[in-house]
Write a structure and sequence with these properties.
This protein has helices at residues 21-25, 41-48, 106-115, 143-169; strands at 35-36, 39-40, 56-59, 62-66, 70-76, 88-89, 91-102, 120-123, 128-136, 141-142. By secondary structure, it is of the alpha+beta class.
């Protein structure tokens, strides 16, 4: 690896793409500018692997990546759809569940939905902050486009998690019942 493409963890926590991303990272699995209309679990794993340091786990209905702050879940958009190891689907839902952060600031939640328009920011039934995005490849998209969507999602969840932590540290954060803590 050349000195100018060296990874700087402090600069960008999930890494950045060098100019020749496809040549450096694709390893021949997909060809540059190849168009796809469906994604299998193996396709998604190959596209995500260069961006993540964590192991990608196979699940019954999708993939899971456990990170230091939570877990990324990748599954079909339709909740009833199955996604076996050898099946390919045309629409994915990617969700990041922040496990290390109980969240009940609904004012801050609305602010984050405005600040991160590509993400669906919500609180799940367990009180965990979640970020989601849907990806559709029905009309055919390039591999680079799907990679860029994944990369943008990872950058956005990193920024949104930092934003949520900073909102929680502020003394005037509104909590669920509308009372300001002192």
């Amino acid at each position: 690896m050349s000195k100018d493409n060296e990874f700087d963890k402090a600069k960008e926590p999930f890494g950045s793409a060098p100019e020749k991303f496809n040549d450096d990272h694709m390893s021949g699995y997909h060809q540059p500018v190849e168009f796809i209309e469906t994604l299998s679990k193996e396709d998604v794993k190959q596209l995500l692997a260069p961006m993540l340091f964590e192991e990608i786990e196979y699940r019954d209905r999708g993939l899971k990546v456990v990170t230091s702050w939570g877990a990324i879940h990748i599954m079909p958009v339709a909740p009833w759809a199955s996604w076996g190891d050898d099946e390919a689907i045309a629409a994915l839902y990617i969700e990041y569940r922040v496990s290390a952060l109980k969240y009940n600031d609904f004012h801050g939640l609305a602010e984050m939905n405005l600040r991160f328009p590509r993400l669906k920011v919500f609180i799940n039934n367990s009180g965990r902050l979640c970020f989601g995005v849907a990806i559709s490849v029905k009309n055919g998209v390039s591999i680079e486009h799907v990679q860029e969507v994944f990369r943008d999602f990872i950058r956005d969840i990193d920024a949104a998690t930092k934003s949520a932590k900073s909102l929680m540290e502020k003394p005037n954060v509104y909590i669920a019942d509308g009372i300001k803590p002192h």
